[in-house]
Recover the amino acids of this structure.
């Protein structure tokens, strides 16, 4: 494909120089609405994966977002509200024995986070409740509840709550293994007293409790129990609704609501049943609604406010219904931005991202002060790639067919130019040099194509490999003479590396497996032609090994480390996320070892960061957010002063043992000294190369010069292989910066 736009020049910036990060804005945000919905004073509160949200319920029943608080995950325990205090559980890690409890004041115009209390839940928070005095919780493996002081969170005592319990004022309702509902007076928490029991049936769990007038409705696994609690010391079972059709094989009822004479309840698969309870002793089935079936919703995700009914699920936004239309339930509107970000990337001047569930392919410009989010494509983008002027992505039309969408872009716009039916399910698409490599899922096929001027492709070669092949990610320091393909044999549990020529007849030059040193690696990252990272290791852990690589299939271990999450590869570093943890670390591989060069806690889950050249702006992106930060540089000042028509380059690059640095400037102005400063990946200046030192005779005309760096520091000691930055300075002020790679 011929170049149709000017190539972008983006100077490099080191994360080692970042300090004093300041939050500026949330550019984009989404959440997964497997959520607890609560209403308080005309507002809807949503505890979802990715955020805690506060909505105003408008007069017409619609929702208007007022405020939100970033959050990484959630717990199985439902959120609770008491006395204008909102309690939300959050697991910092899926495997952590500790749980964070967010205490949020909702008495004002917008909710305010008061504090975060950390409690030891052992195996995760399963259920909690609050009353005027106490915070009571159980973990997933116990029936004894721990009681904490609601204000101080200090331990008070433990009581037998039976796992599935509910607190209402000074009463605790608990489900017992013998089929009884036990009601306890906990006004004296040190001496709880059982005041009554009522038998409601064996072998069922009390999943949800709903109080209405003098009745308690309990949603269990396969039935709805209705209990008269007008006399709390002598409750009696009114009836069990057991003739509930179309139950899921594994069923539990998560939500119950009542409007006039209608009983509305739903299960974890979002089937909705509506019964007429005009005669409370003989409820009559009116309708079964399966229109909103979705993925599992394990939480209390249905709530009524007047005539407005709100329901949320994993695969939907918050759906709005009006119950005055009962027994018909028709969705009126939906609110939210459901899903999580399926992918995100930065290609100057665009940051692009796609939602997992809505599939909108969005982008915004980092060059705009007030970034406006645009939608490029509104279908299921599966995988994508860039070169300097073309962007390609695969739309997963079906399990057996995909479309290749080809876009042209420059610093002004992105335009879709063509959409090609592939006739097979595309696994990945990637530029390797001038060729476009498309892989097929099953069977594993690698297709090497030429991208033509009319935005079509011409197939040049095809190779069959194992399942789910992809082109190994690489930095710009890697040559594109060969195509590196990683694929998997799932029966044997072995990943394979196939290497093909990227010229001629594209023949295979190597076919080897990645079972190195007894470990089955799943992913290959190419750092340079002689350095690679392999990930996987024993039990598919997040283990990353740094290797010296000798073409085509020799690996020598240099260093390794294990982390809690995956990595995102950049040219000079990689970003290491920590799964559900909120910290983000950045590592380099210089000096043939992994070294942390930056770490920051963004307060929410972050997977990658993009640093915008020649600005003090950083974007942090994760599964649920795109955040904008300002920062300060330290170490080397790489804020460039404006001098017109500066040309700076070095050759060769990569180099060993020396490289020639050349530059040319016009309209220099009154400059007394010009020099080249050389920095390592940590931002430490290691060498100064003087080009002009004329205090008496100032230069004002255009100036060109070349100078050789021999790979030694100011002490004439040879430096190690790795990335280095060279910076052109005039009178000590930086004019331009670039990077180079020393390979030994």
């Amino acid at each position: 494909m011929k170049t149709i736009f000017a190539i972008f020049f983006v100077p490099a910036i080191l994360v080692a120089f970042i300090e004093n990060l300041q939050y500026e804005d949330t550019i984009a945000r989404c959440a997964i609405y497997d959520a607890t919905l609560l209403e308080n004073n005309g507002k809807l509160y949503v505890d979802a994966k990715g955020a805690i949200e506060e909505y105003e319920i408008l007069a017409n029943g619609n929702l208007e977002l007022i405020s939100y608080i970033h959050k990484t995950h959630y717990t199985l325990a439902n959120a609770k509200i008491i006395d204008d205090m909102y309690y939300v559980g959050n697991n910092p890690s899926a495997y952590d024995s500790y749980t964070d409890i967010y205490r949020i004041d909702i008495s004002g115009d917008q909710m305010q986070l008061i504090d975060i209390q950390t409690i030891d839940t052992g195996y995760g928070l399963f259920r909690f409740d609050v009353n005027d005095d106490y915070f009571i919780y159980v973990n997933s493996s116990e029936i004894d509840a721990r009681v904490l002081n609601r204000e101080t969170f200090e331990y008070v005592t433990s009581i037998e709550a039976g796992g599935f319990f509910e607190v209402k004022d000074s009463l605790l309702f608990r489900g017992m293994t013998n089929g009884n509902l036990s009601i306890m007076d906990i006004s004296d928490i040190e001496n709880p007293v059982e005041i009554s029991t009522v038998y409601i049936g064996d072998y069922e769990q009390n999943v949800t409790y709903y109080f209405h007038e003098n009745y308690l409705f309990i949603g269990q696994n396969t039935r709805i129990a209705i209990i008269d609690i007008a006399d709390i010391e002598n409750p009696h079972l009114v009836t069990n609704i057991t003739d509930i059709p179309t139950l899921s094989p594994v069923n539990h009822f998560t939500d119950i609501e009542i409007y006039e004479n209608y009983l509305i309840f739903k299960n974890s698969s979002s089937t909705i049943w509506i019964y007429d309870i005009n005669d409370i002793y003989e409820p009559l089935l009116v309708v079964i609604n399966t229109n909103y079936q979705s993925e599992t919703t394990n939480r209390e995700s249905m709530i009524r406010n007047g005539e407005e009914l709100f329901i949320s699920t994993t695969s939907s936004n918050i759906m709005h219904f009006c119950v005055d239309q009962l027994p018909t339930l028709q969705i009126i509107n939906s609110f939210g931005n459901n899903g999580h970000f399926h992918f995100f990337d930065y290609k100057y001047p665009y940051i692009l991202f796609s939602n997992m569930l809505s599939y909108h392919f969005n982008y915004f410009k980092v060059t705009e002060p007030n970034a406006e989010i645009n939608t490029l494509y509104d279908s299921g983008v599966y995988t994508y790639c860039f070169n300097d002027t073309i962007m390609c992505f695969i739309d997963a039309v079906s399990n057996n067919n995909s479309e290749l969408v080809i876009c042209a872009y420059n610093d002004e716009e992105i335009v879709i130019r063509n959409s090609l039916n592939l006739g097979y399910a595309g696994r990945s698409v990637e530029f390797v040099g001038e060729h476009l490599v498309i892989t097929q899922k099953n069977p594993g096929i690698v297709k090497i194509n030429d991208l033509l001027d009319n935005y079509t492709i011409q197939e040049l070669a095809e190779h069959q490999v194992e399942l789910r092949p992809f082109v190994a990610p690489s930095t710009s320091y890697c040559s594109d003479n060969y195509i590196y393909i990683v694929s998997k044999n799932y029966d044997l549990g072995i990943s394979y590396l196939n290497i093909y020529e990227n010229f001629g007849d594209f023949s295979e030059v190597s076919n080897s497996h990645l079972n190195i040193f007894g470990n089955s690696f799943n992913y290959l990252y190419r750092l340079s032609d002689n350095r690679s990272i392999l990930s996987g290791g024993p039990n598919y852990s997040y283990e990353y090994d740094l290797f010296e690589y000798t073409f085509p299939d020799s690996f020598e271990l240099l260093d390794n480390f294990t982390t809690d999450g995956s990595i995102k590869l950049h040219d000079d570093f990689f970003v290491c996320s920590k799964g559900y943890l909120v910290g983000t670390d950045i590592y380099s591989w210089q000096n043939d070892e992994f070294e942390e060069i930056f770490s920051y806690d963004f307060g929410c889950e972050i997977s990658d960061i993009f640093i915008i050249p020649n600005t003090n702006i950083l974007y942090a992106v994760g599964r649920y957010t795109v955040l904008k930060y300002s920062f300060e540089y330290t170490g080397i000042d790489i804020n460039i002063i404006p001098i017109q028509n500066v040309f700076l380059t070095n050759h060769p690059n990569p180099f060993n043992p020396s490289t020639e640095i050349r530059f040319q400037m016009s309209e220099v102005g009154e400059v007394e000294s010009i020099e080249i400063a050389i920095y390592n990946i940590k931002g430490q200046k290691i060498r100064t190369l003087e080009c002009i030192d004329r205090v008496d005779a100032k230069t004002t005309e255009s100036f060109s010069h070349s100078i050789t760096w021999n790979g030694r520091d100011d002490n004439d000691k040879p430096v190690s292989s790795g990335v280095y930055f060279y910076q052109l300075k005039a009178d000590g002020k930086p004019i331009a910066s670039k990077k180079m790679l020393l390979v030994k």
Observations:
- The first strand starts at residue 18 and ends at 29.
- The chain has no helices and 65 strands.
